[in-house]
Amino acid sequence: MEIEFSQQAKLPTKFGNFLIQSCREIVGNINHEHLIVFTERFSETPMVRVHSECLTGDVFGSLKCDCGGELALAMEQIARVSDLQGGMLIYLRQEGRGIGLFNKVNAYALQDQGYDTIQANEVLGFKSDQRDYGIVGEIFKHFNIKQIELLTNNPKKIASMEQFVKVKRSSIIVKSNCHNEKYLRVKREKMGHLLEEESCE
């Protein structure tokens, strides 16, 4: 794996002012370009969100998942602590838990037939979660980060980050809706996510 970092640039947003830097991960003949959004300065324990790309949720506002809501909430929270703790959002280009956009849409079609997210992935020949977080360790090295406050509800993500840095977890909860109730239940009951059960509104 080869890694290349771009120059840094300013990114004013509706949440606050950030810097951005891209990280290019080259594996064989395949390039993955990830994005790092971060505050100008951060403490020894920055607030960090490792967010996997979800085009439907992050860009188009899909109600079938909680991804777009988590992304916005993470940006808000990191901006809120920018003067003291600071932090970063690492945006990984691992659409559909690593199966890609084309296969994710096919998985959506299976979900429309009644399959849950895990079953749909398995019917298509994939694991429930195919993401790899190795590049995150390289990003932490690049920024000389040794410990973090991680915004996540996913125990597996915590375990993955603990390979690279010391981790303190903070939950990131967005309101559920009638379209993602089953999705969140699968996260909670089958994937062990640290979520409270909510009724559909």
UniProtKB/TrEMBL annotation:
Gene3D superfamilies: GTP cyclohydrolase II (3.40.50.10990). Belongs to the GTP cyclohydrolase II family. The keyword GTP-binding applies. The active site is at D129, R131. It is an enzyme of class 3 (hydrolase). The keyword GTP-binding applies. Keywords: GTP-binding, Hydrolase, Metal-binding, Nucleotide-binding, Riboflavin biosynthesis, Zinc. GO terms for biological process: riboflavin biosynthetic process. Its cofactor is Zn(2+). One of its GO terms (molecular function) is GTP binding. InterPro entries: GTP_cyclohydro_II, RibA, RibA-like_sf. GO terms for cellular component: cytosol. GTP binds at R49, V50, H51, S52, E53, E95, G96, R97, T117, T152, K157. Its EC number is 3.5.4.25. Pathway: Cofactor biosynthesis; riboflavin biosynthesis; 5-amino-6-(D-ribitylamino)uracil from GTP: step 1/4. CDD domains: GTP_cyclohydro2. Catalyzes the conversion of GTP to 2,5-diamino-6-ribosylamino-4(3H)-pyrimidinone 5'-phosphate (DARP), formate and pyrophosphate. The gene is ribA. This is GTP cyclohydrolase-2. Binds 1 zinc ion per subunit. Coiled coil: none annotated. It comes from Helicobacter anseris. Residues 8-164 form the GTP cyclohydrolase II domain. Zn(2+) binds at C54, C65, C67. It catalyses: GTP + 4 H2O = 2,5-diamino-6-hydroxy-4-(5-phosphoribosylamino)-pyrimidine + formate + 2 phosphate + 3 H(+).
